[in-house]
Amino acid sequence: MIHIIIILHFLCFSLGVGCITLSWLVYKKHKKNILEDIVIGEIIFSIWLLIDTLFIYIRKILSEYKIENIFNVISYFLAAAVIFYVYKIIKKVKDNELYKKINVQIKIIIGLIIVTCILFLFSYKIVFLKDVPYLCLIYILQCILVIIYCIKEERQIVHEGKNDLKCLTNREKEIADYICMGLSNKEIGEKLFISANTVKNHVYNIYKKVNVKNKVELINLINRRD
Q1: What pTM did the predictor assign?
Q2: I want to staple 120 with a disulfide (CB 3.0 to 4.6 A). Which of 31, 134, 139, 190 is the partner?
């Protein structure tokens, strides 16, 4: 049983390394503070899991030298640090629009983490729950949670980037301004000395570049930028 748990722990580390790497790359690319907290919290949690893994093998040695409590103190300290960073991340989620990114997948994983924590709290009363590797399970679940969040964050940033008017050419910006004034394609063509079909092609390219479907969405986007 102990060797199975050890193998599970090292599988967790593999997932954890991927999770930390992904979080760090997304943070370096976009400099989001919440991602920095996730990276730091993830590293601390990984160290905590590593110490817990070592403790499985060297528990008897530590007991002989009566230094078992030192490992316990370190584990408690790391647990407190993880809880602190979880609090910071939750606070940042509550303080901005990240609530919109909490979909069904994320809710299910958060629910599983909460259930695992509850089972851990009551495990001392139920015999068959005592040997379950709770820390390992929570680590796996939160790694999956972070990976899903990072993927959603990256997609959201890419989507926002598509709504940036900086990607338009000067002619396209000029046409977009005329659209905001309520001019038709024919009227815009007369002002710019180009055909209505050319204006229509420019308008299509504008929609595609800024990820809108019609003139109303384009006007709303420009007004928000202003």
Answers
A1: 0.56
A2: 134
